[in-house]
Amino acid sequence: MEAAVRPWWWRDTAVVAWLALLGLVVHLATNGTYGYFRDEFYYIACSKRLAWGYVDHPPLSIAVLALTRAMLGDSLLAIRLPVVLAGAGTVFLSGVLARQLGGGRFAQWLTAVACLLMPFALGIATFFSLNGFEPLFWLAAALVVVRIVNGGDTRLWLVFGVIAGLGIENKITMGMFVFGIIVGLLATSRRGDLLSGWLWLGGAAAVAIVLPYVLWQVANGFPTAEFIRSAAQEKIATMGIREYLAAQLVYAGPLAAPIWLAGLAYFLFASDGGRYRMLGVAYVTMLALLLAEHGKAYYLAPVYPILFAGGAVAVERISMRRRWRWLRPALTVPLVIGGLAAVPMAIPLLPPDELVRYSVRIGVQAPEEERQQRVELSQHFADRFGWENMVATVAGVYASLPAEDRARVTIFASNYGEAGAIDFFGPRHGLPPAVSGHNNYWLWGPGSGSGDVVIAVGGSRAALAGVFADVTEAARVVSPYAMAYETDLPVYVCRRPKRPFGEIWRGAKRFI
């Protein structure tokens, strides 16, 4: 059937839209299977304290969450709806980008399928985080660049600047992508664009959007810089080049590698893809930066929908020749089969025991991005277990205290996940708000407690004994499937502080 006589629901753009809708429906059907993710408790706590910045992230995604909660409430499906919509938007825009690169129906379809089945994209749409919005911002920015290269109005550089500013307000790694594009312009025949007044106006718009966040950093002593330093020294696992590249295969999908590698080659070396060379240079630039700075491997993952688009266009053009027609099924069939096989590793479809067995059978494990003890479930899933049990255990310790102690007790959590869970589930148990020295919880302060009586969740007895004269273990939290440091978790009751609580609090800061 010719494209001109296809019904509207079977036209090229409609097919891409149907794939995006499929992803949305799958996530809406499965996102309530497991519990809240650790970071979701923290982000909910942040959304109750709106600010122009936070220790470990910019403010845009938190404002989105606050609006979502105000409109829809705090259910799993409600708070995850924004990232589900962003994921569907990413699938759709990837197909649009393929079309702008000159791709026909097959290229648009292949791009959207690769994006739909990409393990990283699937995973980040299953819980609320700033990562869930990042591929959409990168794709939108790349689409504007391609439009300009295709002869679009140079005023689109202003649009690029607005997207860049909003993207940085979501996550600062957007700045890395923008830097990659600038290097790409410098390294190609498009370097003249850097002299465009509209590009500079776009840069000014980006600065204006990001300025409140920068001023917040200044006012609070640049806590994000301290957070990044601490994470690099104590938290982020160091990967060699081979491990880092292997992680890229996992995040993009092992059987999708021929497509995105073809996209990289298309942008860098193909004669008809040469005008988009800045996209290939941007990838190489970002990869080099992350390898040099030991950045987490998933920081590069949002770029793969862009490379999928380039690769799909290249495959489509090569396979138009009779002797290369086999290439389409040879790439598409493994992509779909491998992508479907990886879906349970990204989306909570299986009960935990079955998921552990399944991961062993297929021989795929998530890359170890942080220095921590590996557990049966990947952190992606393990961080959704044990929270209600932990809060109930703390509530039992709280209820066991004399009334005069309950009236003045401070609940101190070792990390923002524990503190956020107590703040979220605690009211139903009559618990007071938690405090913590972890990231923005430290900036929010020690609360109104005197510190004379403290319920400490986690931590070591020796460390607590250095601060309190009386430290008694009151309970232990045992949560199957949870992260190793969230099970067999001690809960202490601490009394008779050895120093003023304000001094103790200053030493509790932990930006990591």
> In percent, how much strand structure appears in the residues?
5-15%
Instruction: Report the strand count.
Output: 5
The secondary structure category is alpha/beta
Strand order of the largest sheet: 2-1-3-5-4
- Helix fraction? 55-70%
For the largest beta-sheet, the strand count, sense and barrel status come to: 5 strands, mixed
Whole-number count of domains: 2
Gyration radius (Cα, Å) is 25 Å
The helix/strand order is HHHHHHHHHHHHHHHHHHHHEHEHEHEEH
* Cα end-to-end separation: 57 Å
Envelope shape = globular
- Average pLDDT reading: 94
Unreliable segments of 5+ consecutive residues: none
Q: Helical segment tally?
A: 24
Q: What does the model show?
A:
The protein is an alpha/beta fold and 512 residues long. The protein folds into 2 domains: 3-362, no CATH class; 387-506, no CATH class. Helix content is 59%, strand content 6%. The protein is built from 24 helices and 5 strands. The protein has helices at residues 12-30, 38-47, 60-72, 76-100, 105-116, 119-124, 134-149, 156-170, 174-186, 197-219, 223-235, 241-252, 257-269, 277-293, 304-318, 327-346, 352-362, 379-382, 387-400, 403-406, 416-425, 440-443, 461-465, 501-506, and strands spanning 410-413, 434-436, 453-457, 468-477, 489-497. A 5-stranded mixed beta sheet has the order 2-1-3-5-4. The longest helix is centred in the first third of the chain and has 25 residues, at 76-100. The protein is globular and about 80 Å long.
